[in-house]
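Attaching the record inline, Q. Sequence:
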Amino acid sequence: MSALSAEVAVVGFGPVGKLLAIQLGRRGHDVVVVDRQEAGYPLPRAVTHDSEFARVLQSVGLAPDTIPEVTEPYDDRYVWRNGEGRTLVEVDWTGHGESGWFNTYFFHQPSLEDALDRVVAGLPTVRVLRGQEAVALDQDDDGVTLTLRDTAGATRPLRAGWVVGADGANSRVRRWAGLDWQDEGYFHDWLVVDVRPQPHLRFPHVAEQTCDVARPATMVPGGPGRRRWEFMRLPHETREQLDRTGTAWELLAPFGLGPDDAELERHSVYTFQAGWATRWRAGRVLLAGDAAHLMPPFAGQGLGAGVRDAANLAWKLSAVLRGVAGDELLDGYGTERLPHVQAFVRFSVELGQVICISDPAEAAARDARMTAAWDAGMAPPAPPRPVLGPGAHTGPAGGTLSRQGRVRVGGGPATLLDDVIGGPGVLLARDAGALGSVDAAPLADLGIRLAALGGAAPGVLTVGDVEGSYAGWFDQLGVDVVLVRPDGWLYGAGDDAAALADGLLAAVRSPAPVG
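Structure, as predicted:
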C-alpha cells in the first residue's frame, strides 16, 4: 500500500474524533481519521447532553431543533428515590442554559454519529480510514509516523504533522506517548440496556434514579422513541451473569416491559471508572475524549467533556497549523481543560458514592439524611460550574463560558447570534463605536467577528438584542465589551476593545508558559 500523509491524524472515529475532524476540516485542514472498526460502534454509550454540547452541534450544522429524530429536550427534573419510592432529592434540569439551548437533552448516540458521518462525508479535506488499526507510533521534531494495519494484516505508514488520540479509555496513543494516568480508584459494574418500547406503552417522561439497596438502577429517556435503563451489579453477581439477554428482560419486567411489547436494542456491562491523564500533550501528540478522562455517568457529562475537548483543541491546533500561533499555544489546551474535567469527575464520583450503596445499614442512613434534608426544603446539589485552568484568557471573567442569545439583524427574524456571525467567536460591544480602533483582520483569521448591540461602524455587524440577554450579561460583568473565543469561552471582558483584541492576539502568537 502507498504511504499516507496529513496535517492531522485523528485516531478514533467516535463522536469526539468526528467533531474534531469536522472542525479542522471546515477550517481547511487536511485530516485523516483512522478507526479499527469497519462499522459504527454497536454498544450503548452516552444518552444525555447539555446546552453547551448543543451549541457545539449548532456550530457544525446539527442544531438540536434541526435533528428531532436524534435528540429531544428534557425540560423536567431528575428525580432520586429510595427503595420504598420516597423522594430523596429532585434536581432541576429545566430551562435554557447560557449557550442558548435547553439545559438538558436526551439523544440516541448511533443516530447522532450517523448525522456526524454525513457532515464528515461532505468535507473534501477529511479522509476516513475504517478497518485500519494504529499499531505503532513514532514522533520526531517534524511530525509523527503512525503504522496502520488493515483487517488482512497488511501495514502502511501514515505521516502527520500532529496526532490526536481520541481512541477511548484504553488509549494506545496515550500509552505510546508516555502520558501518565491518575486513577481515582472508582470501579462499579453496571448493565446498560437500551429499549424501544412499542408505541402503546406509556412511560412518564422522567429521568429517575432509584437508590434501592436491592438494586440501584437508572431509568431515563434514550432519545426519541427509546428508553435507557442501567442496573448495578450486586456483590454476589458476576459480569457474565448480568450481561445476558435473559437477565436484561428479568430486570425490565417490573417496569412492564417484555419481549412481546419492546425491542431490546442492545445491552452491555460497563465498568464505571474515574480518572484522567495528567498531561494531554507530548510533543506532537495530543489526547481528547475518553483517552484523556473517564467519569461515571451520573452527571451526564462524560461525552460532553470530550466535546469540549474538541472545541478547545480545534481552534488552537488550526492556529498553529496556519502559522498564526506558536505550538506553545497547545500547552494551554490541557492546562485549561484538565481542572474543568477534574471538577466533573469528582462530582460524578460523589453522586456515585450516594447511589452505589449495597449495604442496608449504610443505605438506611443515607435515606434518613437525604429525606430529612428534602423535607426541610434543602436545595439539591448543583452541578459544578468550573472555569478553565491557566491558558489563553485574562481577568476575572476570562475562562468562563460565554452566553449566546437571540438577536435580530435589521427587520429579519430573531436568530441565535452564532448563526448570524458564523460561529461562537466574537468581539461584542454595547456600541459599535467602541470597536472603531480594532484591526479586524487578525481576529477574523482566528474566526472572531466584530459585532455590536447598537450604533454603526465600518466592518461591525449591528444586531438587536431581542431578549436583552447580552445587555444583562454586560451589566452583570460591569463592562461594555466581551471577547469570546472560537470555542465559546470568554477570553476576557472590559471597556477597551482594542486592548482585549491585542491581548488575545499576544496570547496566541506568544503564549506565556503554563504549568
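The radius of gyration is 24 Å. The chain has a mean pLDDT of 94.

More tomorrow.
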